[in-house]
Structure formats: structure tokens, C-alpha cells
Amino acid sequence: MRYIVPIILIAPALASAQPQTRPSTCDVTIVRAPDDVRPVVQKWIDAEPRCRGSLEVRIIATDGGYYLIARDERGHTNERIVPDAQSAGVLIASWAADDGSVGGTPAATPAPAPMEAPMEAPMPAPPMTPMAAPPMAAPGISAPGATPMFERPLGVDAQPARAATAPRWLTLGALAGSSLGGARVDLDLKRGRWWAVGVAGSMTVAEQRLYDYQSDGTLDMFDAKGLVYAAATLRRGAFELRGAFGLGLAYTKVDATWSSPSYPPSPSYGGDGVFGIGDLSLVLGYQLNDRWGLAAGPVMTIYNQAFDLTNSSMSTPTTFQRAVDLSLFMAMRHTL
Asked: pTM above the 0.70 mark?
């Protein structure tokens, strides 16, 4: 008899701090969890004697702990951040218990009592740290109270997050217009949420017919342009509408050939020079992903050019004045 009393007194102290495992009565599915956390949480679920309904649980490692999100068969969800795997097991077991509801705020979660030793003392619950709200911008995770996106695995096929500040673009594409063609490149040097400044360059070739009452001619023009632009942008999701104004210089080379039904064609002649230009554009862009995009829109170039194209066979002097070119800009974009 004298040996029985010490054994009874020592038995509670020998109880393990871990919950006793047994065949699970809880319908809890751990959809996602770190490999070292899953068995710890499963032991707490197996030790919970009071379960009802079914529960889907996802456990995601975050800075300083684990982010828990659960949904029951009624579609109710709950989300918490806990410091360690033991705390995650205690909290998930309480959500699965009869006295806890996933749809509401759970009460304090006592640790499950061991089932085998009749005189064991209840195991104290591990200390809980204050629970912060889950990060709102985590890809694939819904905000608290919102309908979770469980139709696909978390983080899979999620749209790329858009930066708070719009990206700087390197835009390269083709210019096409009536009797005009060429290439253009735009480079954003500085970019804010709704504005941008940068530089642009282009090279184009154009052809124009000239007529005189005695003869007609063909005017071939080559332009190399460089300018500085300022732009205002309007963004809606992946779309961006940009209006820009630029000022710069253009080197223009002109070759003219005259012909007449009564005379053989005249030799080609012309001139060149550097002129000031203005540039107006309205471009619609679409961001394909974090690195690439498309852009298209009209570009108008304003010139202040005049060339003397008088031919010795012409009866009156002829001066060609150039005012405006209109073209369509179609381009690919790459973020910087």
C-alpha cells in the first residue's frame, strides 16, 4: 500500500506535453502546410474529442510565424497568425471542436486533456502572442471576411501584382502612315504614378508628289528626329492611356526629281538641314506581365521646314513647305 500512493502522485507529472494520439474523429483536411508543421497539427486534431462538421485548413509560413486560414462546410472562414506549430495545432483543434465556430471569433482555446491517464492534470495551453491581421497583399489569399479563392491552389495562376508606382518603359516599334514608314523608340527616364518624362528618337522615310503646270516631280524625304517629352498617364488595371508632348530637332534630307512629257527627266537634286519640331502622341498600352507590354496610337509631328525646289525648266519658282506628318505607332514595351 505504501508504494501505491507515490505512484498515483507521480503519474500526472509523467504525462507527455504532447496530445495523446488516437483514431481521429475530426473531419479536418490539411490542404497545405509545411512538412515539419503538418504532423504536429495532426496530433492536436487527433486528440480533440469534440468535433463536428468538416474543415479545410491551409498553413502558410510567414515572417515570425504561420498564417492559418480555414473554411468549414458552410463556407465560413477564419484567419489567424500564430508564432509556432504547437499554437497552430491548438487553434485548429479548437476550430474543429463543438464549442468553436469557424465563422466567428473563437473563445480562448484550452489545450485538449489527455484521454488515457484518469488522474492526469490538464496540459496548459502554450502562450499565445497577439495576433496581427494577415497581410492584405498576399497573392491568392482573401482578406478577412471575404469569400476565399479555394477553386485553385493558393499562389497558383495568380495575376502579377501591380506596382504602386507605374513602371518605366522602353518602347520600340514601327511608324506607318500615308506614304511614310519608319521606326521609333521611347525611353522613360523618370516615372511617377501618373506622369513620365523621357527621350525619343525616330527615323522615317516619306514620298510626296509635286505638280507644276508644265511638269511634275517626286519628292523623297529622310528624317532623323530626337526629342524630349513629358507625358501624363491614366492607369486602370493592366491598361494605360498616355498623352505626351515633346520638343526636339529633326535632320531632314530632301531629293527631288522632275519630269515632263516634252522633256527627259531632270537629274535629282535637293537639300538638307536641321529644323525644330514638335511631337504630340496618344498611346494606349496594355501590360502583359511584370516585364512586357503592348502599345499603339497616333503620333503627329509638327515641322517648320521650307525647301526651294525650283527647276530650271519650271516657269515659276517652287518652294515646298512641310507642316505636319501623321502616323500610327505600334510597339512592344519592356520595363526598366
From this structure: no
